[in-house]
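Re: folding output
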Amino acid sequence: MKTNKIIIVGGGSAGFMTAATLISQFPNKDITVIESPNIPTVGVGESTLGQINAWLKLLNIKDEDFMPHTDASYKLSIRFEDFYKKGDGGFHYPFGNVVENDYLGSKQLWFYKKKENPETPITDYANSFYANMALVNNNVLFRNDDNEMPEFDFENNVAYHFDATKFGLWLKNNFCIPKGVKHILEDIKSIETNDEGITSLNNKHKADMFIDCTGFKSLLLGETLKEHFNDYSKLLVNNKAWATRVPYKNKEKELVPYTNCTAIENGWVWNIPSWERIGTGYVYSDRYVSDEDALKEFKRHLDSKGSDYSNSEFKNIKMRVGIHDRLFVKNVCAIGLSAGFIEPLESNGLLSVHEFLINLVKVMRRGDADTISQWDKDNFNVECKRFFDDFTEFVSMHYALSHRDDTKYWQEVSNRSFVDNRLSDNNMYLTLLAKMANNEWLRSDSGHHCIGVGLRYFGVDVLSDTMTDDTNIKLRLRDKMVNTWNIICRDKPKLLEYLKKHIHKK
């Protein structure tokens, strides 16, 4: 299949991230974005994970390039509140690598500490192994250019809060169009096809390859090519969200370097502090609560936090949770919501976009630069589906291990048989839970152990061994290191001041 001329249907963050990626990596290709002037963007994805840094580096985009124009701030962690039980408090899943070695001991070490001192709070786990938490707990930020704190890698251990709509517009006006991407405002009223896929749009726009960035509508892949969509709602029941923005009351205090997720009656509420305002929303399932009652629950939550929403607009979003069988079919490739979507927990909305794009670049680079083989289409489909299903199973873990039982929603989502509803044919989720139960998961440097500990899932043998002199020495050394992190961070600028000095200089 030729790839010389590419048309991207749909704008927004997904469309212009796609255009930016392709024009940066394949500057000689003819790339056009056709965007409807009448379809608003969803705009849920205002929070990213650390993986976006690889995509930004691929395009040579620096923080100071886009952040001042996209209402952006930095993010170092995700906090989960009341997911274990109502009123239990919260725990963090920080970004960055776990600090463990022969000198300081492994993650297993913390469980000895917990055994000897049962009053040790759950929050101490993340504090003990992630340098990021020293910055989070002190609400500070610094670049660490002199490597004063070697365990903190600014370039890779930070993510972002930003306005996804503004991010798409910035990419369009400051990256895509200046580099040669064509932009057309036009509704797609007709799509012409043959056995090889799509031939033209509106009987005039022709291309070798079409990329579907039309959101949940999935105009090209779903509606036109009729590619089967796998509904994951049996595994993840949340399918609606109320979203809004509220002003800061105390910006220095409320502008924090983490996304907060709070479990409430029939779902959970996100809180994303960006530069100018706080983005917030309630993710829920309409199987358990009506839209009207969900809005009431959301407003009660905002009231409990003292948020002023008197001038806020509340937007209701319907989500399609799942993924198509194939994402690259004939001459059509889907990126973003048109391909698939996991509910917003763990800030995965934009994650799939940039990870799928990196995979697309890989397959387009192989072989003849002007063509793509069926083998590579299949490879793209397999890799993207594997990534998507793995992350879906990770998100479902937050519900499977919850002990909330205060509403029918929580009773059912925490007691669902996730094995019966597994996504993969290889019992991947069952294997994950088995590994966790037998402590093998502690050898992983992923977020599974943070979520597991936060939800009091320690494994069956994790506290079975006894303390030794060596264990006590390593515990003291680790506590000393954590204290050093906090001493360093106490003298660093608050996040608000750092942003004023380095990003938002007006």
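--- second protein (sequence, then structure) ---
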Amino acid sequence: MDKDKKLQYFLFLSVFIVATCGLIYELVAGALASYLLGDSVKQFSFIIGTYLFSMGVGSFMAKFVKKNLIDRFIEIELLIGIIGGLSSVLLFLLFQEAAHFQFILYFIVFITGCLTGMEIPILMNILKNRVNFRDLVSDVFTFDYIGALLASVLFPIYFIPKLGVIGTSLFFGIINVCVGIALCIFLRKEVKNPKSLYAKAFFSLAALIAAAFYSNDILSYTEKNLYQSNIIYKHSTPYQRIILTEDRGQYQLYLNNNLQFNTKDEYRYHDLLVHPAMSTAPSVKNVLVLGGGDGLAVREVLKYKDVEKITLVDLDEGMTKLFQTNEVLTDYNKNSLNDKKVTIFNEDAFVWVKNNKEKYDVIIIDFPDPSNYSLGKLYSTYFYKSLYESMTDKTVISVQTTSPYYAPKSFWCIHETIASIYPNITPYHTYVPSFGEWGFAIVSPNNSINFQYPKRKLENLKFYNHKLSDYTDFPEDMKASDIEINRLDNQSLVRYFDEEWSKL
């Protein structure tokens, strides 16, 4: 193989690696926005838009690079590695300290995108006299897009669960720099300033290795400052960052930086989620719980002696495994997920419901709030229509419907969406100190079922008094008008949710 051919293949390989790394850095920024700022449609859109725009800017800037192209190409590799690799560390450290954190986040995305955008035009200039132009363009973009595909597939499936956000960015930063070092060695006779490049490369590599060595300490420091409580468990799954904290004997669970429950008052939420439906349903033998991977809703369902079977559907196996094995958490959910009556499916509820043929007497829906389109579909007319196949004509459903005080448009959007399909619906709410005012809905396809008259009562509930009418009054500051129904093709609920919660 001649020298030009070797150079061609080696540079194409570097394109593949840079494309993979570049997209990884974009995904890391998106994951960080999710963990630190909340899962916002606006944030993800801005990150993607900023990255693509900056690649265009970088491609434009590349035309001004005319000398020592191989040297510049290697320097870009090193810069992408050091900036992209250290981006997650820097963002975690600055989250609590920087007044304009989002600006810093998008600026880092912009710089990374610019450098990535410069890489392909410079590479083409290096190879333009060595490769047929038609083949050159085709091959470069083929390697570029294959690298992007690989990154998008492996990021959620492998890298986030195994390495976490910080570890992933540092790992790919080191790969970027190693490619730069390999280029220095392979092209040592063609580079103009090999000593300078070697110095830059080994300095970058040393910085990334040092950051990787202390990455756990950095993450622990930032998360300790973020949560202001003792962190006793932390884990990244393909779907979310799970943090469990302890404060004066009370435990708090956070998913992507959003509080899911506090053990001091979670009973208020779960009493109102579960018991109105369980107490008024004609039968409670077969119960379906959608979401609720913490097992706390299942705990309440198991209090009814007539229950024979419970099916739990939760997407995240990491969540259900945690609440099956952690001694602190199994104590609070009364080891409910290990009960012989419970069957767990770690699947997307949207798909599972569509394929399910079994009928249930009670359905408890405890999904996360509709902060993005993936979650918003679980509150759509399509989903609630699909749910009909899992019902008998006397099924009773309970749904958490976010806060009618902080997000009244979102709350009533969910209500109107369900009411467009099942007219027998009663909205209600209660105060949960950790969350504020929180809302629910009780629903049935059968108009003859009166939710105000319980058929069974449990003694010694800490909060719910079996009088649903005590929770159905909505003052004026919890009402909203001119609300759209949430459909798959408009996802109005996600827009309402993002608009309302972003103001807090």
